[in-house]
Structure formats: C-alpha cells, structure tokens
Amino acid sequence: MKHERPRIELSGQPLSFAEMVRIGSGKVALSASATGMARVEIARGIVEDAIKAGMPVYGATTGVGAMKDVEWSPEDLDAFSLGLVRAHHFGTGTPFSCSVVRNAMAIRINTALTGQVGCTPELVTAYMRMLEVDIIPVVRRTGSIGCADIGLMGQIGAVLTGVGEAVYRGKRMQAADAFAAAGMKPFTMAPRDSLASLSVNAVSFAAAADATRNAAASIRVLLASGMMASGALGASRDPWLSVRHVGTSREALIGSWLCNASDAWQWPIKTHVQDPLSLRMVAQVFGAVIENLLTTGHKILAATGRSDDNPVVVEGRVMTSGGSLPLDVTILLESAALCMAHAARNAFNRCVLLGNGQRRDLPVNLVPPGRIATGFGPIIKLAGEIFSRVLSMSNPVSAQSLVVAAGLEDEAAFLPLVIERFERQMRALMRLAALEALLSAQAVDILGDKPKGVGGMLYDVVRKHAEFYTVDRPLSAEVEAIEEELGSGAFMSKLIEEVPIASFDDFFALGSLERIEQRLTQEQVAI
C-alpha cells in the first residue's frame, strides 16, 4: 500500500517556520482550501471582465516595464504570455536549494489564494501538481534587484512551460524531460498568468525565511559557546542573575538561559566584580540579537500571506500596485546583519581573553605548561578574520540608486543580495562558535575543570574531533568537523532538550525535522 504523505492546507494565511521546514523537505503534500480557490476564481472573473471590456491590463494585454504602452491584439496574447515568462529566465550563478524553491512555489500558491492576484485557478493547480510530483525548477540565485524576483521566479515559470532545467527524483535535467518522466504536460499561460508567475518576491521570502532560521540556529550555538568560554574564564554569573531583574524582556530571557545552562557546571572560582564586558554583557548582546531576529521572522512570515503582485485585484477592480518592493523585510534583514556583527565581536573578544594569559593563570596561546609549541595564537587570528568577515557584510546596500526600464523602475531593495550576504555571515558565525568551543575545551582541560550540561555537550563535540593540544599540528579539518556537528539538526535538538528557549526555539522550528514532527504530533494530541 502506498504511504500517504502528511498534508498541509494552504489558505492564504501566513505560513509558519515549521510549515516551511516541512514543505521544504518535500515530505508533505499540499492542498488549497476551498475558500481560497473560490477567491482565486472570483478575482479571475474580474480580470477577464476587464479584458473583455477592452481595458488595458498591465502584463496581461500590455507589455511590461518600458513597453507598458504597447497593447497586444487578442490573437497575439498567447505568444506574448509564453514569451514573457521565458524572457525572464535570465538568472545565473549557483542555484538555490530545492527546499527554498519548494517554499517559493508554496508561497506563490498561498498568496494567490488571497484572491488579490487575478491568475487562473489552473495556474494554482499547475504549481500544486509540480510540487506533488516533485519537479523542482533549478533557480539560479543571481537575477533580482529586489523589486519582484523577475529573474528568479521567471525560472520557475519557464519550467512550468516546459523549458529550463529542473530536479526530478534527485537528478538535474531539462524541464521537458522531467515533465515526460513525471507524466505531465507543460502549462499554457493565459493572460495575467505569466506576470503572476514571475513578478513577485516569493523566492526572496523563501530564502529569507531559510536564512533567518539558520541565523537563529547559529546564534543559539554561539550563545552556548559563549557560556562555555565564560565558564573557562571564571566569569562571575552575577550579571546574568541581575539582568533578569533590570534588563529588557529579551535580555532577561537570555540571562535566565545562561544561568540555567550553567547550573550543572559550578564555576570553580568567582572573579572580580567587574569582568570584561564580553563576559558581563552576553545577555545584553544576545538579547538585542534575538529581539531583532524575532521581529524579522514575524515580518517574513507576514509576507508569505500577502499579495505583492502588480497589478492586484481589490475592491472589484484591477489596480496597479507598488507592493512588489519588499523594503520592510530588507531593512530588518540588514539590521539583523548588523546584529550578527555585534555577536561576532562578542565571541571574538572572548577568544582573545582565552589566549592572552590574563585569566585564571591560563598560559599564553593555551600552550600547556612544560610544552614547546606555538599553540592557539594562529587560530585566534582566524577568529579575528572571521569577525572582520562578518563585520564587512553588515553594511547596508538597499539604499543604492538604480534606474532601469526607461526610468519607470527607480526603486529597488536588493533583497536577494542582502540575503546572500546574510547567509555568508551565518556560515562564518558557526565557524566562530567552533573556534570558541575549541579554545574553551583546551582551557578547561589545562585547568582540570569538568564542564557539565550544555558546556559538557560542547566539550564532548570538540573532543570527538580534536585531541587536547600538546604538540603543534594542523587544525583546519578539526575546526571544520566541529563546526559541522555544532551546525547539525541533531546537535540543535540536543541543545534545545538540555536547556530550551521555548519562545525562540519553537517560533523558528529549530532542531531536526524529526523533532519538529514530534512536537507537532504532541500539540495535536494535546488539542
């Protein structure tokens, strides 16, 4: 008997991170709500009435951009609709992951179900069918200035018509071959369907959701390595205790987590009242970071249930719209990138403290007493390079001026570029967490400490891949192995189980897919 996949119903309401993780995995089936499809049909009727009445409908009976005043005759519309979507298959570079593309298609379906787009119900069904058989267009990531993902969404739309490339059953192939293998036929675009297939920011919103979730995971690991380093350096826990009473709500949340995560590992000594700021102010730094990430995450989710098309169908009319500029999401992501720089600086400062011999009589460069070695001095330089790398990608780019389409298009958010830089920051942050954990493990072994709880988890990961340092040796592969395990869904699930931050972990659906499915099952049983 064929196993039926779990189902998620799209209705036009915003998606959650848990839903997008499941959709992106390709392990759930999608359906469209009856009320959503009814709204699609009503909106389509309004568009068709406008076309029959001879009204120019942008991108349906007229050209686009600089060709907006060119009107097509009825007999030209089929050729124009086909050519429009294929002309916008111009993206280049490394493709997005299949999970991001699946979510982009789901977002396009979901926003169409608001009844404000005017596409045909058949277009919605065609997208659903592609997801059902798992034909996933290859979407090269360079091709959008962030005012509708025309060069990105155009690659999805073009595949729908039978050209371009797609991944089918794990193999990359020509779209026509994928359709033939799946027993599908290419879709014929009706007027308005072509523009509805390409002139939205669905790929950017899907990629932004993925990047922000990864950022949340990176910050959780970096917070844990920061706690471990603080223990190795003998920091006072009093500032973490006091922030629960005098800090902001997010600072108090982080202070509570730091206290709970360190309870199992009793600090061996209590140091000066005034520890370095990178130890005292972990809660303040990370409190600001998670506040920003939560705000950004909510903004991205709202975008998954809102039509950003042009034109739109509202108040019974087809109207021009400026909704394709995703500036709200872009600016918050740029702010998140700045937050990442603060988190990176905070971690780098602790790495310097671990190696400079100023705390707990730790030896310089963490070289064990009696050993002749260079030690971890070079690795601390790597930490500095990573911090500078994160900082260099925190400068905003969205306010750059760009004028195209004969001056009609003079606003752009550059959201895909912002996301790409943000993703690079996340990879750098996870490596910085690996370095901080490696240095901390060396310090606690020199001192004879026995970290427990979260600190013990990190220690075990480090020692799984890197022995106690006594003789100079290459560290590159060891650092990468630690980074890979700390960044895994399995480790995140263990970290959450050990000491959760429920409001943060659950919102971003952190951890493995199995943990997410288990949590959803528990919620359903509770209901």
Automatic annotation (TrEMBL):
GO terms for molecular function: histidine ammonia-lyase activity. It is an enzyme of class 4 (lyase). It comes from the Bacteria. The keyword Lyase applies. Its EC number is 4.3.1.3. Coiled coil: none annotated. Keywords: Lyase. This is Histidine ammonia-lyase protein.
